[in-house]
Amino acid sequence: ITNPTNGFVALASACSESISTFTQADLEGGRVVFVHDGASAPTAGFDTIVSDAKGATSGKVQHVNVSVRD
What we know:
three-stranded antiparallel beta sheet; globular
């Protein structure tokens, strides 16, 4: 996880701590959250790249857009 805008990615069990990695099990278990920083911008997001235990990656970095809700 790189270049977060208007917030950060965290584990639901520790919402005040930014993380830079998470696992497929974290995603499937609903443990990954995006914590908005309260900015007035209508969008937020972060960049990510997927890799496996052997170091193979999904290719280029992908941007994840987060829709901000009240």
